[in-house]
Amino acid sequence: MSRFAPEALFPHADDIPEAWRLGAPVEQREYLVDGELRRWDGPLATVRSPIFLKGERGEEQVILGSTPLLDADAALQALDAAVRAYDNGQGAWPNLRVGERIHHVEAFLARMRERRHEVVRLLMWEIGKNLKDSEKEFDRTCDYMVDTINALKELDRRSSRFELEQGTLGQIRRVPLGVALCMGPYNYPLNETFTTLIPALIMGNTVVFKPAKFGVLLMRPLLEAFRDSFPAGVINIIYGRGRETVSALMASGKVDVFAFIGTNKGASDLKKLHPRPHRLRAALGLDAKNPGIVLPQVDLDNAVNEAVTGALSFNGQRCTALKILFVHEDVLEPFLARFSAKLAALKPGMPWEDGVALTPLPEPGKVDYLATLLQDATAKGAQVVNDGGGQSRESFFYPALLCPVSPDMRIYQEEQFGPLVPVVPYRDVQTAIDYVLDSDYGQQLSIFGNDPAEVGRLVDAFANQVGRININAQCQRGPDTFPFNGRKNSAEGTLSVHDALRTFSIRTLVATRFQEDNKTLISEIIRNRESSFISTDYIF
Ligand code: G3H
């Protein structure tokens, strides 16, 4: 029996624990440009929670507040501030010594940690992420910043030495690229955004940052920390519709790095607006349809456990989620039975409730979209295997395990980004191999099996197709020191603590012929500290 009782899902305001209650809706008019919080007197966007509360008029969607709907002109002013702060690479920020830039980021991190409770509360209310995962997102982001600082120190230490090759003396350092535009996704509005924003800043770029479409208000508690921790114009935070604001920024040709997590269509449309394509570097995290392949010789309990969390943590709203499962016919029945049983044990509810796994979805229209995919699949022969699968209440959709799924169904190709779990039974593993070869996406996949010959063969079949092959484990981004990328339409570039520092910088080399007069010149520059680039300073 599923634990979903639709009428009991949404609470009364009084049922909410004190610590997580909301105050009055927040009318945010501030945005950060050129080191000051400017006030926007134009139109605002209403911020709705995926959470409904029971009241006198039935269940009503909670309004959390509103945020500025900046126009193109206001967005361009933010860009101009970033352009001025970079000043063609002559600005104070891009020329600051690495150790000093690190101090600014450390100051910001200390201020950010003070706002943990507010940010976690807003993560729950704005995107419906459960308490445990919201806390994890916050803490993982702080850890990422600490690791980034340490990785940069290490990088800088290596660059503090000279190299002598074939009579040429050289010093190689990484320098910033210019003005970065950073945009994150709504499912990890803090973490994924900061995994580009912080490396961009710490490498000496100046930044315009636009928060995701949901998870916007949670940046409000950090605005003052951003303002106070960085010099004017180094970080600018804008709000509004992407079409109006971001399009204008890209069309200006003044953006040098475009960090974006979203759809490949959105990324292509925006990149095309840039008038100087080869001067734009992009770091993109895009669509994915990661398959899980369950082989006949398998530890089925482990496969089911991993597939359930892989497909359904944060209601399947992860780019790395398992979005289609290929299950060998020999183990299909027990797999479906155990999956359904596990799924039935997942607790639906409000994000702050103890042990809650399934929560309301933030995207308007998402429940209808999932219902359409489900109807399309059932009309073409799939069945909902689990009890209660596909039931909904307002913004909440109870997960549906669908089987047998076939290529003519929309769910076979479309990225559902939600709690639908399609299962394709197969007899010949070539079915799963062909799916991956033909797919437009190539982020990750999971292989569940324990026959060394078969697992080994599949790894080789997939090694040139996806960015990561997980064996007997769900797909995931972490640990953050591992490379995170994708093939085909799933990504551009590679991110990790180590890679992001490289993505937001380029190597510049100072070289000279190794002879007496040059040796003296370089020594004098170093001794008299005439240059920050030519220096043997060592950060401890
Ligand atoms: O939405 C995509 C995220 O990068 C996934 O990260 O695998 O840690 O949930 P995760």
Automatic annotation (TrEMBL):
Keyword Oxidoreductase: yes
Keywords: Oxidoreductase
Coiled-coil zones: none
The keyword Oxidoreductase belongs to this UniProt entry's keyword annotation: yes
InterPro entries: Ald_DH/histidinol_DH (IPR016161), Ald_DH_C (IPR016163), Ald_DH_CS_CYS (IPR016160), Ald_DH_N (IPR016162), Aldehyde_DH_dom (IPR015590), Aldehyde_DH_Superfamily (IPR050740)
Domain Aldehyde dehydrogenase stretches: 63-505
Name the UniProt record assigns to this protein: Glyceraldehyde-3-phosphate dehydrogenase
CDD domains per the UniProt record, alphabetical: ALDH_F11_NP-GAPDH
Sample GO molecular function, one term: oxidoreductase activity, acting on the aldehyde or oxo group of donors, NAD or NADP as acceptor
Recorded family membership: Belongs to the aldehyde dehydrogenase family.
Short name of one Pfam family: Aldedh
